[in-house]
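User: I've been trying to design a sequence by hand for this structure and keep getting stuck. Would you show me what you'd pick, starting by listing the structure so we're on the same page?

Assistant: Good idea, let's start from the same input. This is the structure you sent:
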């Protein structure tokens, strides 16, 4: 089996009985055995249970008609270790994480299981997902398959390393400030942050700014997974409007001639690496060649001081509601976050939420009015070196969060606004590391990103980029 096969390709081979789910799982677990000692992408494995689930999928394939099988019957997928899987512990990447097995699947996990996926383990994340490099005191650093001296990004870095290296065909991920798009950029993958509450969870995280999703090799895989995960949830406080048709039908559909704004500036004025700038201008030329109207220039950004203050006030609460054995065991930057959150009164917190809502209301109407799609770098920098995120922590415990700002300065805006945003792997820097470009669409228009993303994929097929 091609270790770079897409999840849909694997599903099709299983449905055609060219390979069994057990054979597929054995292949990928073999890749984990071979590669993970070098990459450290898996935080937890339960091969026995995964093999039992694969055998059950074998039986289903043998007894059911191909058209009656679940969409991803027998396809292995790892789950990010910030989310519950019934019977498995959720460490949250932390020494303070509980080792008690979860009693239920998190909602997105249950939807993946219902679509026929075989859960093959849990991938690493930084503690509580608060930084954009996947390194923790509990599990150590996760490494980028393209260059093991560099980070695969975060917080879904273990998921990204697993897919990019061929240890899994697709991986569950999540994004509260860029945690799907940043690893996608670092490892040459497709990463969609869906619209706010497109994929619901048991509760809203970060005032609805956080969402689950997947990391994949293709736009088609991303669309098919979105169809599985974005289901009507009558228990949710808030829901995105239902799409007009399944997202899989948007793959390859013409997006029309779009007004595209290309921007290299960012809300905080962080300077841009040359490789990230080159990726943007390459993409602008490609979009012009596809017949789109491309205009260069920034949108009207929110006030940077208000935006950063409001965002960090909400971000500091990220440990709220998590099962922690002892908060004192958290890493210093998360102790500092939690201490700051505990010192912030409820009135001040709600005022910060209101400030972000006002900023969002001012920013969002530009989409559809001034342009149809905004294209930016996914990150302002190439993937940093492993360990660099901790620089300065001995003097300032919040330094790791601040060190991540250049990685998240283009992505966090779309968690606050709830707009859908997609990172595509359009470039490889002279260093040999991938560089992604971010596409953001108007409210609820995830379908537009699938159409445009698949058009860009066909015009600049990243399957032809250097392989690992």
């Amino acid at each position: 089996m091609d270790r770079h096969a897409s999840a849909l390709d694997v599903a099709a081979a299983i449905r055609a009985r060219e390979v069994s789910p057990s054979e597929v799982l054995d292949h990928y677990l073999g890749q984990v055995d071979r590669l993970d000692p070098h990459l450290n992408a898996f935080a937890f494995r339960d091969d026995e249970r995964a093999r039992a689930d694969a055998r059950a999928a074998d039986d289903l394939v043998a007894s059911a008609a191909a058209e009656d099988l679940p969409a991803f019957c027998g396809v292995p997928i790892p789950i990010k270790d910030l989310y519950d899987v019934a019977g498995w512990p959720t460490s949250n990447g932390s020494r303070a994480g509980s080792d008690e097995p979860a009693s239920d699947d998190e909602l997105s996990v249950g939807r993946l299981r219902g679509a026929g996926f075989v859960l093959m383990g849990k991938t690493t994340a930084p503690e509580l997902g608060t930084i954009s490099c996947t390194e923790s005191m509990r599990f150590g650093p996760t490494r980028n398959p393209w260059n093991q001296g560099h980070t695969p990004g975060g917080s879904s870095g273990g998921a990204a390393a697993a897919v990019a290296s061929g240890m899994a065909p697709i991986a569950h991920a999540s994004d509260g400030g860029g945690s799907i798009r940043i690893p996608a950029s670092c490892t040459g993958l497709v990463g969609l942050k869906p619209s706010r509450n497109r994929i619901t969870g048991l509760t809203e995280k970060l005032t609805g700014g956080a969402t689950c999703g997947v990391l994949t090799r293709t736009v088609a895989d991303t669309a098919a997974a979105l169809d599985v995960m974005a289901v009507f949830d009558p228990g949710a406080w808030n829901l995105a409007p239902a799409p007009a048709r399944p997202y899989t039908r948007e793959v390859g559909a013409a997006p029309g001639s779009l007004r595209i704004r290309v921007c290299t500036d960012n809300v905080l004025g962080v300077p841009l690496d040359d490789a990230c700038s080159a990726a943007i201008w390459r993409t602008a030329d490609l979009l012009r060649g596809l017949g789109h109207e491309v205009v260069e220039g920034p949108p009207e950004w929110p006030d940077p001081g208000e935006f950063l203050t409001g965002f960090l006030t909400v971000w500091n609460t990220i440990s709220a509601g998590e099962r922690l054995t002892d908060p004192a065991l958290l890493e210093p930057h998360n102790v500092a976050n939690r201490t700051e959150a505990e010192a912030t009164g409820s009135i001040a917190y709600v005022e910060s939420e209101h400030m972000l809502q006002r900023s969002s209301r001012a920013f969002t109407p530009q989409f559809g009015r001034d342009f149809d799609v905004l294209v930016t770098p996914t990150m302002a920098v190439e993937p940093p070196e492993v360990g660099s995120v901790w620089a300065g922590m001995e003097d300032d415990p919040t330094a790791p969060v601040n060190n991540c700002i250049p990685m998240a300065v283009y992505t966090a805006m779309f968690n606050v606004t709830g707009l859908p945003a997609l990172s595509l792997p359009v470039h490889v820097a002279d260093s040999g590391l991938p560089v992604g470009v971010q596409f953001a669409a108007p409210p609820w228009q995830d379908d537009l990103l699938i159409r445009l993303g698949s058009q860009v994929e066909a015009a600049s097929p990243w399957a032809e980029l250097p392989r690992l």
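That's my pick for every position. To get oriented when you compare it with your attempt: The chain has one domain: 7-464. The mean pLDDT is 96.
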